[in-house]
Amino acid sequence: MIDLPGGTFRMGSTAFYADEGPVHARTIASFALDEHPVTNREFAEFVEATGYVTVAEEPLDAAVFPTLSDEERAPGAMVFTPTRGPVDLHDWRQWWAWVPGARWNEPFGPGSRIDDRLEHPVVQVAFRDASAFATWAGKRLPTEAEWEYAARGGIDGAAFAWGDDPDSADDLRANHWQGRFPFLNTGAAGWVGTSPVGTFPPNAFGLFDMTGNVWEWTSDLYTSRHQPADAQPPERGLRPDLALPVAEEEPRRVLKGGSHLCSPEYCLRYRPAARSPQSDDTSMTHIGFRCAR
How many domains does the chain have? Predict the structure, then answer.
């Protein structure tokens, strides 16, 4: 873990997406953060030690989803699949599919493996899974404010973790989509999909993959705009517009950092201020986490 000093920084942005505002001062106490996202190797050690079963490995609760068939309630997760060519970028269902049997150690469905991806970030982990790992490790998930403070690396108010200028193919600073989304990805430093942690340069705090590679869970509930630091948490019951069923009382958490699927022409979110809502019970091939203490 990297020990980070406390401080006050400008959180948020008004230059990109509406939910990143307003820009406001936020003070953070000193804390420690994992140097990189939790890897497949580390998560496998957790499962081996505890026998933990992830959300994606459990069928949906018949009491919560009584109208679904047993087949529709089968364990599974969301998997990204490139399209054959250009598509309407407003319809994400064209490149995301619910895959029965997809889980953390078979992230793309039955038969897929992580044997050669042990140093990649673990994916297909829901909020409960990330929280359980953190508790086992004697840690916790970071708050959104802590995460953004850490991602900025002391470069206050910059658009990216490394400054205001975008990176380039000749000087990639993060693992994000290269080419035409969602059908042509030439790879970031040779990697299509996730990359081993530490492949790309760290930020000024020495933290790797704070933007790009995988989105990361935080402990905060999502609101459509930043709330004052002393505001009450939002009510439960927000429902994301997902193709898979979501329980009425399922909240959404803030994801931070963007992922290997972020493309400037579609999702310019490999930035410290960027944020995204995610249902607590949903696992996907581009979401991981890291821990704080």
Answer: 1
